[in-house]
């Protein structure tokens, strides 16, 4: 069955400037964001994430290539896209002299939300981000973290089917970032598609179901988080850690006899097993039998870290 | 959609009338206007100025102040209209709504037109009211009509500077840059160009001829109060006329000049070298003023339109990352 896509780009190119001073910000980006996924767009600063997002919602025109968002063309139907997408832009700001509620009501007006619903929708959005009790305070009194939450609230105003967050956790404290991630998980459970750009690797692993890695305007890798893990695992080997009770000694030759095992590393009360293929089930049945049963405390697969994954794809996979 | 432009205009209008900046400019404007009316009424008391058509003379004094203050009002409203939104990041928030870029700039223009009209009308009304109350000046229907026409042209002058400053703001990355450039242009048009125009005239015509005061007798003098004034020679008067012509040609590059020409005709005083006692002489009818000053009027109207169009083009074509 063909996967339904919320965002689809084909060979997107964006060049800023002309002649010798031109800069290629996007170099043939083809990216697929499945519906109802939480898609992490990961890349270092200046890799082209914001440019890509700006093209998706029609703030920038691509030099060449195609982009479709929720089935609408990003160049010709950007208004339709912005009608359906909640965006938290990078480096956004609010009208400081207005209250949080006034800001949201003004933005709700521009979202064409019926007049009688604007206030209730604004309060609802403020409640979702935990700012309802500060609704009537001027934005100038808000901390950076609170402004970021207010930014998320404005993106939620129209209850969009697709949310795009550009560097959403920049400048907010760890608690605020954790709250944000919970909010993302909750919205994803409600069936919303979320595209979030970040330069923080751990964020991708914590909330995303899918991811793309971008560098120098090109996609290094993309797919479901599981697939991205799988490729790295296959390349560097599947790793498992067996924890042994203090003073215990397990027969390593039994592990070595499992087909695919290439390396066994012993250190104090830990044994790391490296295999060319998935041997989780074989190891499980092994440690359930004596003498392993009495000596083994735990058996856990060692997943590649996101840094490892990034380095892997950066090196060309 | 026009309704989006009006939504933005409504917010902008409220921001302007509740903000300090507008009241500061309007306050200074009012202060200078009232001071100039006092100066004129002092002239009446001392007998230096003729006591006829006092309201027209007071209005002409207000017009002199307006020629300097109306541009400042326009600049105050426009210098950060776009660059400020860009600096604060609110432009990104606005443009991520389902609205066209045109709506943003249209909203700002509609709001500015309303704020400028209101401020100019209120300030002029306040200055005239103060004059009536403090100096016991009589106001005729013709005076009222002239003041209304004057307010209309003052709104256009202020709006011309708004359009110019808006244009600068659309491509400036910083509001401070936009403010400096706008104020620089205002200073150039209001203060530097008149000096340059005189310099050009002196360079072209060379040194003035000797004033060559003619023999002093009763038929060749103008008498005013207890003073007597000699008349200059024809050659000297011709020289001065040529200086005025060349200066006018150079100054005609300034929008302020065209505004001053209209208000001068409207209130019957000249802006060039004054013949003593010329203020307060009989004024031409409003229709005559409008017909004789049609070129100035057209330039005054076309100037803001050109810059509004340029702002519109720059803003709508520009891509915001």
Task: Describe the fold and architecture.
- The complex is a heterodimer of chains A (317) and B (321).
- Chain A has 317 residues and is of the alpha/beta class.
- Chain A has 2 domains: 5-222, P-loop containing nucleotide triphosphate hydrolases (Rossmann fold), CATH 3.40.50.300; 237-314, Alpha-Beta Plaits (2-Layer Sandwich).
- Chain A contains 12 helices and 14 strands.
- In chain A, the strands form 3 sheets. A 6-stranded mixed β-sheet of chain A has the order 6-7-8-3-9-10, sandwiched between helices. A 4-stranded antiparallel β-sheet of chain A has the order 2-1-4-5, covered by helices on one side. Chain A has a 4-stranded antiparallel β-sheet with strand order 12-13-11-14.
- In chain A, strand 9 (210-215) and strand 10 (218-224) form a beta hairpin.
- In chain A, helix 3 crosses helix 4 and helix 4 packs across helix 5.
- Chain A is globular, with a radius of gyration of 24 Å.
- The mean pLDDT of chain A is 91.
- Chain B has 321 residues and is mostly helical.
- Chain B has one domain.
- In chain B, 75% of the residues lie in helices and 2% in strands.
- Chain B contains 12 helices and 2 strands.
- Chain B has helices at residues 2-18, 20-46, 54-78, 83-88, 90-95, 101-135, 141-171, 175-205, 234-251, 255-267, 286-292, 294-317, and strands spanning 222-224, 227-229.
- Chain B has a two-stranded antiparallel sheet.
- In chain B, strand 1 and strand 2 form a beta hairpin.
- In chain B, helix 2 runs antiparallel to helix 3, helix 6 runs antiparallel to helix 7 and helix 7 crosses helix 8 (175-205).
- The longest helix of chain B has 35 residues, at 101-135.
- Chain B is globular.
- The two termini of chain B are 23 Å apart.
- Chain A binds chain B through residues 50-51, 54, 57, 59-61, 79-80, 82-83, 87, 89, 91-97, 106-107, 109-112, 154, and chain B through 4, 7-8, 11, 15, 19, 88-90, 92-100, 319-321.
């Amino acid at each position: 069955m063909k996967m339904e896509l919320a965002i689809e780009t084909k060979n997107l190119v964006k060049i800023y400037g002309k002649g010798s001073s031109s800069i290629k910000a996007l170099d043939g980006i083809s990216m697929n964001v499945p519906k109802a996924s939480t898609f992490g767009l990961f890349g270092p600063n200046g890799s082209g994430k914001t440019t890509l997002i700006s093209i998706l919602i029609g703030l920038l025109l691509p030099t060449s290539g195609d982009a479709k968002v929720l089935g609408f063309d990003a160049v010709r139907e950007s208004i339709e896209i912005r009608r359906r997408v909640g965006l938290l832009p990078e480096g956004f700001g609010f009208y400081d002299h207005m209250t949080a509620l006034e800001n949201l009501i003004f933005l709700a007006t521009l979202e064409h939300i019926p007049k009688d619903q604007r206030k209730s929708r604004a309060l609802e959005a403020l409640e979702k981000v935990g700012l309802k009790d500060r609704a009537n305070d001027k934005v100038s009194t808000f901390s950076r973290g609170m402004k970021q939450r207010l930014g998320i609230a404005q993106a939620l105003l129209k209850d969009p089917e697709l949310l795009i967050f550009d560097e959403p956790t920049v400048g907010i404290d760890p608690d605020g970032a954790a709250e944000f991630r919970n909010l993302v998980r909750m919205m994803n459970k409600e069936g919303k598609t979320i595209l979030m750009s970040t330069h923080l690797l751990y964020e991708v692993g914590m909330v995303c179901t899918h991811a793309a890695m971008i560098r120098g305007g090109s996609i290094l890798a993309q797919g479901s988080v599981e697939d991205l893990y799988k490729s790295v695992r296959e390349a560097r080997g599947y790793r498992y850690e067996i924890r042994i009770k203090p003073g215990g000694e397990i027969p390593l030759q039994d592990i070595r006899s499992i087909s695919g095992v290439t390396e066994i590393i012993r250190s104090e009360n830990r044994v790391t097993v490296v295999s060319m293929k998935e041997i989780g089930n074989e190891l499980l049945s092994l440690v359930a039998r004596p003498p392993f049963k009495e000596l083994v405390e735990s058996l856990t697969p060692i997943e590649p870290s996101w840094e490892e994954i990034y380095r892997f794809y950066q090196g060309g996979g | 959609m026009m309704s989006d432009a009006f939504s933005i205009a409504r917010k902008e209008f409220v921001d302007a009338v509740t903000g300090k900046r507008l009241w500061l400019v309007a306050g200074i404007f009012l202060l200078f206007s009232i001071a100039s009316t006092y100066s004129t009424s002092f002239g009446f008391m001392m007998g230096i100025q003729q006591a006829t058509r006092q309201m027209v003379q007071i209005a002409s004094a207000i017009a002199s102040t307006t020629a300097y203050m109306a541009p400042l009002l326009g600049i105050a409203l426009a210098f950060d209209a776009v660059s400020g939104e860009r600096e604060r990041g609110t432009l990104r928030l606005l443009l991520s709504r389902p609205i066209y870029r045109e709506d943003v700039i249209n909203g700002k223009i509609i709001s500015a037109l309303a704020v400028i009209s209101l401020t100019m009308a209120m300030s002029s009304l306040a200055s005239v009211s103060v004059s009536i109350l403090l100096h016991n000046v009589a106001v005729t229907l013709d005076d009222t009509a002239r003041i209304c026409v004057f307010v209309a042209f003052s709104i256009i002058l202020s709006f011309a500077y708004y359009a110019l400053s808006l244009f600068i703001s659309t491509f400036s990355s910083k509001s401070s840059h936009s403010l400096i450039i706008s104020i620089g242009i205002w200073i150039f048009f209001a203060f530097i160009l008149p000096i340059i125009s005189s310099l050009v005239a002196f360079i072209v015509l060379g040194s003035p001829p000797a004033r060559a005061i003619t023999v002093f007798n009763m038929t060749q003098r103008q008498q005013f109060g207890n003073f007597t004034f000699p008349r200059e020679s024809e050659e000297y008067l011709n020289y001065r006329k040529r200086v005025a012509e060349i200066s006018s040609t150079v100054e005609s590059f300034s929008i302020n000049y065209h505004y001053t020409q209209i208000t001068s005709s409207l209130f019957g005083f000249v802006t060039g070298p004054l013949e003593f006692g010329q203020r307060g002489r009989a004024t031409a009818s409003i229709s005559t003023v409008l017909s004789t000053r049609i070129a100035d009027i057209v330039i005054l109207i076309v100037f803001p339109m050109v810059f509004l169009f340029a702002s519109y083009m720059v803003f709508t074509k520009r891509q915001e990352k």
